[in-house]
Design goal:
The complex is a heterodimer of chains A (149) and B (232).
Chain A lengths: L2 H22 L5 H19 L5 H7 L4 H43 L8 E4 L20 E3 L7
Chain B lengths: L7 E9 L6 H6 L8 E11 L5 H5 L4 E5 L5 H14 L4 E4 L11 H9 L5 E5 L8 H18 L11 E4 H7 L8 H11 L3 E6 L13 H16 L4
The chains are: A mainly alpha (149), B alpha/beta (232).
Chain lengths: 149, 232
């Protein structure tokens, strides 16, 4: 066994142990733990028995075992990052909704002091409302295909 | 001449994060009356401030507090949702740091009251009042918007805007951060919202607060994303 093989095996065993403790502390679900355990076991096997895996290289048209390991590793990482990204986005949406609902619920419906600055009521005896001005001097742009309602 | 029903209830929505220095002056400077509006109320959204922003706003505005900071876009949406729950028919959004003059509000709201527009967007002049980095960034983003979406706006990053309750349904944005201004215009363009622009004064109290160069790159990245996606 070469030094690099030893390092790889020890590293894989260490990560397997970390995964196990994470599972026990419920920081990982069982399914996630199983996936990671498979990863560490595969890395150990690849490190310990590289020659036995050469039979895989030819059918896959890969030049070297290391190339196969690199390609598989990159693919795995890409999938993992994608899943993380989705998870984060969902969390972000949930946090936003939660914070907003909490804020609106605690603000309540009752108006605070001095918040309505002016209230004008037009009724009997009051002056008739001014005719609204038409903004002829402002350029009006209608965007998009539909007209506003 | 178009006659429209009077009796609008206007909400001035202000997201605020650590704005104790300017907020009181801004709130006290809001106009007491605007033609076409029966009532005007300020809605301040305290976006996780760590200073006395909330204390300053209490008593001067309807206060909504985020337990944690979510960003300008999220705070604006919360403020608009609060305004709708309060029965407001028009909403004006403005910054709480004094970069927008409250005196511009009547001109901003006027096309909404007369029924000539659904969304009114303010634009600043890119002159010496604007810090050079901001001038370059705003110019670049405004031109990038025009190139990507085919609609020309003089100042896509100006946060002073006003829109009707109905328009808000078509504008309702998802951005949590400073991309909200850009997303609002994209949704307006794709949703058939009638838009008009009004000029306002350029005010900068603090060169380094608000959007940074990194924010600018983030906004541009989002523009590219929205160009590729069908944001509706």
């Amino acid at each position: 066994m070469t030094a690099i093989q030893l390092l790889a095996v020890l590293g894989s065993l260490l990560m397997a142990y970390v995964t196990y403790t994470a599972l026990r502390r419920r920081e990982l679900h069982l399914a996630e733990s199983v996936v990671w355990m498979v990863v560490w076991v595969v890395l150990m096997v690849v490190s310990l028995f590289p020659d036995r895996l050469r039979a895989l290289i030819a059918p896959l048209a890969v030049a070297r075992l290391l190339d196969l390991v690199m390609i598989a590793g990159i693919f795995f990482l890409a999938v993992f990052v994608f899943a993380l990204n989705r998870s984060l986005r969902r969390l972000e949406n949930r946090i936003e909704r939660l914070v907003r609902e909490l804020a609106l619920a605690s603000a309540g419906d009752a108006p605070g002091q001095s918040q309505v600055r002016a209230e004008h009521r037009v009724g009997e005896g009051a002056e008739s409302p001014k005719e609204p001005a038409v903004a002829e001097d402002l350029p009006l742009r209608e965007l998009g295909r539909q007209q506003a309602e | 001449m178009v006659l429209v029903d009077m009796g609008h209830r206007l909400a001035v929505v202000m997201p605020a994060r650590n704005e104790e220095a300017h907020l009181e002056q801004v709130l006290r400077s809001l106009p007491d009356e605007i033609d076409g509006c029966d009532s005007i109320e300020a809605v301040v959204v305290d976006d996780g401030s760590t200073d006395a922003t909330a204390s300053v706003a209490e008593g001067l505005a309807a206060l909504v507090r985020h337990a944690i900071s979510l960003g300008k876009g999220a705070a604006l949406r919360t403020g608009c949702e609060a305004a709708i729950r309060r029965g407001c028919t028009l909403m004006a959004v403005m910054d709480a740091d004094g970069q927008h003059e409250p005196g511009d509000l009547p001109r901003l709201v006027r096309p909404l009251v007369t029924g000539d527009a659904d969304l009114v967007v303010a634009y600043r002049s890119f002159d010496h009042q604007m810090p050079p980095a901001m001038r370059l960034g705003n110019w670049a983003l405004s031109n990038a918007f025009g190139a990507l979406f085919g609609e020309r706006f003089r100042d896509t990053q100006c946060g002073l805007r006003a829109f009707t309750r109905a328009a808000y349904d078509r504008l309702r944005w998802r951005s949590l951060d400073y991309s909200v201004e850009t997303e609002m215009l994209i949704r307006a363009a794709r949703g058939g919202v009638r838009v008009t622009e009004v000029p306002i004064a350029t005010v900068y109290h603090d060169q380094y607060k608000g959007t940074t160069v990194l924010d600018g790159f983030g906004i541009f990245a989002n523009m590219l994303r929205w160009r590729l996606a069908d944001v509706r």
